[in-house]
Design goal:
157 residues, alpha+beta, 4-stranded antiparallel β-sheet, 5 helices, globular
Length: 157
């Protein structure tokens, strides 16, 4: 009788293991299918809006994580935070007004809303049209800072 229970127990474990693997593989396949079916620019627009939101909420560590890898090699998180907190300009938000993808490169046209602080005067709101470069690496979009030394290159390791 014990041998029968051992075989039954092993069978249950095998069935559980197969079901577990099916769930894992089907979940990954579903995620990949969703990613492939997304229209061009949809993932990028979400990423841009998240980046703008991080800047507006002064979550500079999260915005920094979305910067181009070569930029992060040259600019530390501390420098990045200092750059954004010592500015006379504070981000209030943005709207995407245009998006042009070319493979793994993209140009995003934005209407950036900022608050400008002038010493001795009341801060005022300003809306500024700008174009920003984004680069996709391993399926993830990264913001490319405007500095020339951080210009896009595929050799970022």
């Amino acid at each position: 009788m014990n041998a029968g229970k051992a075989v039954l127990s092993a069978s249950k474990q095998a069935i559980f293991f197969v079901i577990f693997l099916l769930i894992i593989f089907l979940g990954c396949a579903k995620k990949e299918a969703i990613r492939v079916q997304a229209p061009n620019g949809e993932g990028l627009k979400e990423r841009v809006m998240a980046y703008c939101g991080y800047l507006a909420n002064q979550e500079f560590d999260k915005a920094y994580s979305m910067e181009y890898p070569l930029y992060k090699k040259n600019v530390s998180l501390t420098q990045y935070i200092r750059k954004h907190t010592n500015s006379m300009m504070a981000y209030e938000g943005c709207e995407v007004s245009g998006l042009q993808e070319d493979g793994d490169d993209a140009t995003v046209d934005l209407q950036m809303k900022v608050s400008v602080r002038v010493p001795g005067a009341k801060a005022f709101q300003h809306s500024k049209a700008m174009s920003e470069k984004w680069v996709r690496i391993n399926g993830e979009w990264y913001h490319v800072a405007a500095e020339k030394k951080n210009a896009p290159t595929r050799d970022f390791k």
